[in-house]
Amino acid sequence: MPIKSRKPRQQAEGGGARPVGLRDLARHLGLSPTTISLVLNASPASEAIPDATKQRVIEAARQFNYRPSFLARSLRAKRTFAAGVMVPELSEGYAALVVAGIEQVLMQRGYMCLATSHRHSVGQVESVVRQLSDRQVEGLILVDTPYPVHAAIPVVSVSGHREDEGVLNINLDHDAAAAQGIQHLLSLGHRSIAVFQGQQFSSDTTVRWEAIARAARDSGIAIDSRLVVQLEGDSPSPETGYAAARKLLARGVPFTALFAFNDISALGAIRAFQERGLRVPDAVSVVGFDDIWSAAFHIPALTTIRQPLRRMGELAAEKLIELIGAENGNLPASVQVAPDLIVRESTGPVAQSPRPSPAS
Amino acid sequence: MPIKSRKPRQQAEGGGARPVGLRDLARHLGLSPTTISLVLNASPASEAIPDATKQRVIEAARQFNYRPSFLARSLRAKRTFAAGVMVPELSEGYAALVVAGIEQVLMQRGYMCLATSHRHSVGQVESVVRQLSDRQVEGLILVDTPYPVHAAIPVVSVSGHREDEGVLNINLDHDAAAAQGIQHLLSLGHRSIAVFQGQQFSSDTTVRWEAIARAARDSGIAIDSRLVVQLEGDSPSPETGYAAARKLLARGVPFTALFAFNDISALGAIRAFQERGLRVPDAVSVVGFDDIWSAAFHIPALTTIRQPLRRMGELAAEKLIELIGAENGNLPASVQVAPDLIVRESTGPVAQSPRPSPAS
DNA sequence: TCCGCCCACTAAAAGGTTTTATTAAAGGCA
DNA sequence: TGCCTTTAATAAAACCTTTTAGTGGGCGGA
Questions:
Q1: How far is B123 from chain A (nearest CA, A)?
Q2: How many angstroms separate the CA of residue B77 from the nearest CA in chain A?
Q3: What is the nearest nucleotide to B38, using C1' and CA?
Q4: Integer Cα distance of B68 and A83 in angstroms
Q5: CB contact under 8 A, A107 and B116
Q6: Do the beta carbons of residue B146 and residue B162 sit within 8 Å?
Q7: What's the confidence (pLDDT) of residue A352?
Q8: A111 — phi, psi (to 5°)?
Q9: CA/C1' separation A49–D26 (Å)
Q10: Which range is least confidently modeled, A315-324, B15-24, B138-147, B348-357?
Q11: How far is the CA of B27 from the C1' of D15 (A)?
Q12: Which of A269, B144, B225, B354 reaches 20 to 30 Å from A207, CA-CA?
């Protein structure tokens, strides 16, 4: 694929004034580019240069508004100060929060954030990784992206649960999360608990489901397999939860609470329940997951397990930068973050009437 | 700020194998780098080269998995195929949707998306623009960013309403949007309509408010200034609308409908109303703006003016690329996109009882 | 007087491409 | 044979820095 050079864009002012470079400064000062570079970079070798000259150089640089070419120095130093970030879909609330955290830390440390999305297409994943590698990003952050990635650079995976050698994981402590949710429901008297499993493509799906099943078992109750529904479709809207809830109701197996896969699906489920005349939390209690910003303002406000998504993004960026700077040897280790149970209005004590079987 | 070169990261395999370059290929084939470059870029000058040689070159390139250095060719060709994207805050649903559209188009056209946020800090805006310029992005897309930006590259502004010379705008047709909302409420019998104005820092604030006032005037009703409340605080949560609604109620001026600044604030307002015993839409009708994904699944589902946010992002990217490729002269022009009124459950006919004055 | 050292810089290479200008060899024609 | 053209390539410059290895001159000391 050829790359054509472009005739330099005419400045509004008319003169195709190309930016001032080290050479221009050198000529203007009657010095060599080397000297200028040494001084401006405060390189150790510049100690031999008298302060007067240094001042002259610095002054001229400011006056001409000299900005070194990132391209040129990247080429020379083999450092791009750029990191690639891959998410399934940027518009998703989940990904957006994590990316916001990542971007903030990267920026603050002088790195650029190259944002990409793959829409769960394996081909797209490969193509994007190739493009990022071509641009010599120094590291990669994968968010909720359970696809194999082959890269010769440091990789941090958020909610990836990867076993891959050399991938640093930032994951939620799902056992704690599941225990919090189950305990909360148990303490309200619930015994028949329905569960939403995530979509196939979500990397949290398996881990979360297994943690919930384990937590239930440990608490002495079992999850009836007829009360387990898997979310389908890749729409990032409550639609998925709405459909799953209807499927659940259609099975006719009584339950008093739902542990949803995430807040989005919980919202959809609540709507489906209310449409069938099942009030939340009177007839059914619902626990969400994530604590997206609208969870608190839904009616009823959602009880949920909060994931510190933004913090996870920040951590991912911090760890990535550590990895990039690390000598071989002492590499930083994976990190687990703690969930928080946020009790709001969508959960309540189990109803008096023994079994509020859903209307069919 | 000095830039130190890093000792090349040891590959897992052990050999610090640096990537194969044009020179390596040349040596292996017994040709010069020039020839390889000519052939691989299918440059016009390569016509003189016999097909046999071309094949040899192409074959070797594939075999060694040769990937040209983006840095080097960018340096030489003065093209980076990168665009900077600035939003107030990446985690906001509004920005995330626009950015998703932008990223998709940029990627598909071979451009990289450098995502940044500024949190409404003018200093941060300047710093980010500087960093992006240093990296020689070929263009800039500003989303909801009403701050002056001085750049010598093409700029596209989404919902920016800038008058600046040389900035291409992608804006919603706010007059149409306001007319749709007002007409809808009028047709339901509402005459006392409250309005939320956006936060000071949002670039849509003024335009939207003026459009609404104009639409009301044109329809023969006036907006009582005591029914106008400005959102405050920069939290991207319904909290702002919740607070504004309480302020509105506290004023004790009767109203039967609210035209909110956006869906997020509408959600907060609905909660505030319900807490005061004002059912939506029975006692108060609420119209939102944006049509974020959860609007449809809120209870009650939100009637709202949809902005085609993703499409606006796509358009912005398309126009930016046009601008970048444009000869001086025929530049593409600004674009207005059309809103859609989405009628759901949060609006209804005005109540029978003449003036459902809010409980104080 | 001569050696070595310090001072204040600089020349040149390197990084990996693209592009312009040039060349060596072969072939055609007078 | 001598001249011109075509073929099949190549050398070198350019892009803009950073870094290594010097350099020339002045000066102190023996």
A1: 13
A2: 4
A3: C18
A4: 19
A5: yes
A6: yes
A7: 64
A8: -100, 155
A9: 16
A10: B348-357
A11: 23
A12: A269
Instruction: Give the whole-angstrom CA distance, residue A143 versus residue B165.
Output: 39
Q: Tally helices (H) and strands (E) across chain A.
A: 11, 12
List CB contacts (< 8 A) between B43 and chain A.
Answer: 2
Beta-carbon neighbour count of residue B193 at 10 Å? 24
CA-based radius of gyration for chain B: 27
Q: Which nucleotides of C are covered by protein (CB under 7 A)?
A: 7-12, 14-21
- Subunit contact A136:B71, Cβ cutoff 8 A: yes
Nearest chain A Cα distance for residue B217, angstroms = 33
Residue B249: enclosing H or E segment and its boundaries? helix B239-250
The partner residue sitting opposite B8, judged by closest CB among A78, A116, A294, is A78
Percent of the residues in chain A that have a pLDDT greater than 90, as a whole number: 81
Q: Which of A216-230, A281-295, A343-357, B225-239 has the lowest mean pLDDT?
A: A343-357
Q: Which of A307, A175, A93, A171 is nearest to B237 (CA)?
A: A93
User: Please, which residues bridge with residue B342 across strands?
Assistant: B304
A271-276 long-range contacts (CB < 8 A, ≥24 apart) are A271/A238, A271/A242, A271/A245, A271/B297, A271/B299, A271/B301, A272/A241, A272/A242, A272/A245, A272/A246, A273/A245, A273/A249, A273/A358, A274/B299, A276/A249, A276/A358, A276/A359
Say which residues have a Cβ less than 8 Å from residue B124's Cβ, sequence separation at least 6. B118
Residues near B189 by Cβ (< 8 Å), separated by ≥ 6?
A: B256, B349, B350
B19 vs B109 pLDDT, higher one? B109
CA atoms of A180 and A291, how far apart (whole Å): 14
Q: Which residues contact B243 (CB under 8 A, 6 or more apart)?
A: B232, B233, B268
Rama region for B240: left / alpha / beta (φ>0; ψ in -120 to 50; rest): alpha
Rounded to whole angstroms, the distance from the CA of residue A56 to the C1' of nucleotide D28 is 30
Q: Is the pTM of this model over 0.85?
A: yes
- The predicted structure's pLDDT at residue A236: 77
Q: Are B360 and B252 in contact (CB under 8 A)?
A: yes
3-state class (DSSP) for residue A342: strand
pLDDT tens for A131-163 read: 999 999 999 999 999 898 988 999 999 999 988
CA–CA gap between residue B57 and residue B54 (Å, rounded) = 5
Q: Are A196 and A231 in contact (CB under 8 A)?
A: yes
List the single best residue of A20, A58, A90 to mutate versus B (max B Cβ within 10 A): A90
Length, in residues, of chain B: 360
Q: Answer for the pair A292, A266: CB distance below 8 angstroms, yes or no.
A: no
- Chain B: residue whose CA lies nearest to A301: B271
Give the closest residue to B314 by CA, choosing from B80, B113, B89, B163.
B113
Q: Look at residue A356 in the predicted model and tell me its pLDDT.
A: 45
**In A 12-41, which Cβ lie closer than 7 Å to strand D?**
18-19, 21-23, 33-34, 37-38, 40-41
Q: What is the pLDDT of residues A278-300, one digit of tens each?
A: 999 999 999 999 998 888 888 89
The number of C-beta contacts closer than 8 angstroms across A and B is 200
Q: Is the pLDDT of residue B17 over 80?
A: no
DSSP string covering B316-342: HHHHHHHHHHPPSS-----EEE--EEE
In terms of Cβ atoms closer than 10 Å to its own Cβ (0-12, 13-18, 19+), residue A113 is buried
Contact B98/B312 with Cβ under 8 angstroms?
yes
